[in-house]
Amino acid sequence: MKKYHVAILGATGAVGRAMLASLEERQFPVGQLTLLASPRSAGTTLVFAGKEYPVEAVTPEAFAGVDIALFSPGASVSREYAPAAVSHGAIVIDNSSAFRMDPDIPLVVPEVNPHAVHRHHGIIANPNCSTIQMVVALKPIHDAARIRRVVVSTYQSVSGAGNKAMVELKEQTAAQLSGQDTTPRYFPHPIAFNAIPHIDVFLENGYTKEEMKMVYETHKIMEDDQIAVSPTAVRIPVLIGHSESINVETESHLSPDEARKLWEHAPGVVIVDDPSSNLYPLAIHAAHQDQVLIGRVRQDPTVPNGLNFWIVADNLRKGAATNTVQIAELLVKEGLV
């Protein structure tokens, strides 16, 4: 089997480390590995397949000879270095928001729109974590009954805001349990024992940027801008795993049993739906897994063709790192690299 020179930019971050783990667990054919990060992280080492690799400071020249570059820095860094990587012959799969809505750059979830990778010109965008798990669940329903409207409320873990946000949750939890006051640093309010309906900046329409990502990205990935999406994004005190309450209205009727049968045969989905036994998707069960867990499937009695359901996925893995690696696998499978 042919092996590839893979680079990870943002290797020391939570998603970068998850990318490294996913490459190893999924046995991606890595022949050579280059780990890149900011100068302050250079010199540290990470382990891949039992071997230590040094982390280098990113430069445009660091991408020379690279076949596939997995990016997980901020959007400004991606905009700076993605063109450089492409100019050196690499295909960039970028996890930031930099290129997601560029009409010339495919936005890919392999279970939903794998054909889109054929349209790349050197850069492929990885969607937002909350969008990824939602469209994996929506795709079989849309194919069978065509979705007209989606109302989604997300309950997003702090790891979506990075390692420092995870530390803040742990510190605030310990402080509050010991009766100490806390001052938030990375969230607008204390996150421990709280729920904050505010992720990213507010826009003029009253929605946050995070919420509008779900609207625009869903249209692009599903290739249907007629799907109405009404989102509310909430940050909750969970370390890993985004949960979503979803209501869909479809053109044709679909019963809960019919929906479950569709999901049973859908890629990347696991049904956890036996409320009588207290079985339904939980963030603690989705953590460190690559599947989207679906449960609490029930008819919406307020409209003729409506379903409610609850989904959970690991936002660092399926919501970021694993989806990125799956795109790389797709490139290899389709002979595009």
Structure description:
The protein is α/β, with parallel strands linked by helices. Helix content is 30%, strand content 24%. It is built from eight helices and 13 strands. The protein has helices at 14-25, 75-87, 129-145, 163-177, 209-222, 256-264, 283-286, 317-333; strands at residues 4-9, 30-37, 45-48, 51-57, 68-71, 91-94, 123-125, 147-156, 228-235, 242-250, 269-271, 292-299, 306-313. Strands 3-4-2-1-5-6-7 form a seven-stranded mixed sheet, with helices on both faces. Strand 11, helix 7 and strand 12 (292-299) form a beta-alpha-beta unit. Helix 1 (14-25) packs across helix 8, helix 3 (129-145) crosses helix 5 (209-222) and helix 3 (129-145) packs across helix 8 (317-333). The chain is globular. The two termini are 13 Å apart. The model has no long low-confidence stretch (mean pLDDT 97).
The assigned structural class equals alpha/beta
Overall form: globular
H-E order: EHEEEEHEEHEHHEEHEHEEH
Uncertain spans, ≥5 residues at pLDDT below 50?
none
Helix count from the secondary structure assignment: 8
Query: The biggest beta sheet, please?
Result: 7 strands, mixed
Strand order within the widest sheet?
Answer: 3-4-2-1-5-6-7
Strand fraction equals 15-25%
Question: Residue-averaged pLDDT, rounded?
Answer: 97
Distance between the termini: 13 Å
Percent in helix: 25-40%
Strands, total number: 13
